[in-house]
Amino acid sequence: MSSDSYPRIARALTDIVDPKNVIVALCLFVGARYGWPGFGWGLVAITFCAGIPIAYIVIREGEGRWANRHLTDRSRRMAVIPVILASVLTCLTTMYVGGAPTPMLSMVAAMLVTLAAIWPVTRWWKISVHTAVLAGALAMLGLLYGPWWLLSTLLVPLVAWSRARLQDHTPWQTVAGAALGALVAAPVFALGL
What we know:
76% helix; mainly alpha; single chain; 8 helices
């Protein structure tokens, strides 16, 4: 494999393991644990935690305000994170009022707390949201489905490499993102198990 193919591989990894894709998969996997009602709640979570945020980003991008959906500019992240926080908080409230299973509430709460932790860091440093979301999601799935899921954490260094290879983050920003995601999401999610 030539070094010319590395940027294409890095871009493919970045796009496939985009935070919205990870959130969709997480919501479906956690929802599947609770049958059809869980699947329905998973769709609610997908709508508020992935669908509305990405729609907002795409609409803003269409207005020519943002260069891409990965929000590589820190100042743009500062503008979008409050919108995402509001959407995720609305999801958590809707699911609580609707009687969603406790682990699904904990999943959304973990997303909310992780994003709330990322926001102030982003003011001064461009921590990797890709690695934070991926590490947090895999930690939650490991807690829910057992230790074999922890083998999937091998994806985290690959995504970290892709973000650094594309020069969207430094290696330390990807490591910090992964650490923050796992260390914040796992305990919040564990409260609901």
